[in-house]
Amino acid sequence: MKKLISTAIAGVLAVGLAACGGGSGEQTLRVGTLSDSRPNAYQENGQFTGFDNELLKDIAAKEGLKLEFVSTDFSALLGSVANGRFDIGSSAIAQTDERKKTVAFSDPYNYQSLGIEAKAGSGVTDENSLAGKRIGVVQGTVSDSWVAANAPKAQVVRFPNDAAALSALKSAAVDGAVFDQVSAEDYARKDADLKVTKAITTTIPHGYAVKKGNAELLGKLNDGIKKAIADGTWQKVHQEFEPNIPVPADFKTK
Question: Among 36, 62, 230, 254, which is most exposed with the fewest C-beta within 10 angstroms?
Answer without folding.
Answer: 254
